[in-house]
Amino acid sequence: MLLNLREIHAFQTIVDCGSLGKAAEVLHVTQPALSRIVKRLEEQLGVPLFERHQRGATLTEYGAQLAPHARLLLNESARAVQAIEALRGMGRGRVRVGAVASALESFVPATVERLLQKWPGLQASVEEGLTEDLLAQLARGEIDLALTFDVPTAPGLKRITEGAWQEGCYVVLGETHPLCGRTDMRLADLAEQRWALVPRGLQPREDWQQLFAERQLPVPAASVESKSINLLRRLVAGGGYLGWMPRALFEPPAPNPGQAIRILPLRDVQTTRRYALYRRQESHLSPATGALVEELLVGIRGVIG
């Protein structure tokens, strides 16, 4: 069974818009014409994909099963066209990479610059995110590479790197925090402190919780939870909160006095996290994306050295 990309595009547009009427406007077709396109797709698959109602259209269980594959098909189709046009000299080529904040703060900018110097017509799209979010985007085909922290399992994804590069996470605080400068602290001494952390379920938070669990200590509640790395940095730098982050997120020191973030040395805490570069298992890397992989590996080896 071969799926028609025009019908898949129509299906995905309805999903994104939430109704046939809005999707018809986006696609510049009449609503009856769009209904016929969807009907052909439903007849081919032999199942209903949408439940129509006054407020719009919602996916059936069959439609929900098709949705992630539809988006991936469309993304891969666009990438195939870009690759062919690049070879014909018609397109500029484009690479899409996502990276965790600590990598973006360290060697990724220089990596992208080296790539663009070698491929002057290339366009680079760089996304910042947390490990779990970036791997989900990669699985959906929204990015082509993900530079994240290593995870135990990543179904449908392939790890490219050797995994030798390690980045430590630290308990950190602002220069004006009452504990700044202390060198005699242990993890148990921090039970009553206020913490600014990423939300539960994300790997940095899990690692932080594991610190307390391994020492049979009660896990403190987070005073502030956010996926915004900038917000967490500002809260910690302000002196009112402790944080948990890699060195690359707080070095070099802040330019303004009193806003620097420091490591709080703990006599019983020493941890590392391993970076990894991922691609989709079954995807084909374009020449430009393959070149980006090589540059990223050069950057990683430079950090190791």
**Rounded average pLDDT:** 85
Strand tally is 13
Largest sheet: 6 strands, mixed
Cα distance spanning the termini: 51 Å
**Element pattern in H and E:** HHHEEHEHHEHEEEEEHEHEEEH
Q: Nearest-angstrom radius of gyration?
A: 24 Å
Low-confidence stretches: none
Strand content: 15-25%
Total helices: the number is 10
Level of helix content? 40-55%
This entry's quaternary arrangement is: single chain
Briefly note the structural class of the backbone.
Answer: alpha/beta
Shape descriptor: globular
Question: Nutshell version of this structure?
Answer:
This protein has 305 residues and is α/β, with parallel strands linked by helices.
Provide keyphrases for this structure.
42% helix, single chain, 305 residues, three-stranded antiparallel sheet, six-stranded mixed sheet
Topology:
Elements: H1 5-17, H2 20-27, H3 31-45, E1 50-53, E2 56-59, H4 61-88, E3 94-99, H5 101-104, H6 108-118, E4 123-128, H7 131-139, E5 145-149, E6 157-159, E7 166-167, E8 169-174, E9 196-197, H8 203-214, E10 224-225, H9 229-237, E11 243-246, E12 261-263, E13 273-280, H10 287-304
Parallel strand pairs: 3-4, 3-5, 9-10
Antiparallel strand pairs: 1-2, 5-13, 6-13, 7-13, 8-11, 8-12
Helix pairs in contact: 1-2, 1-3, 1-4, 2-3, 6-10
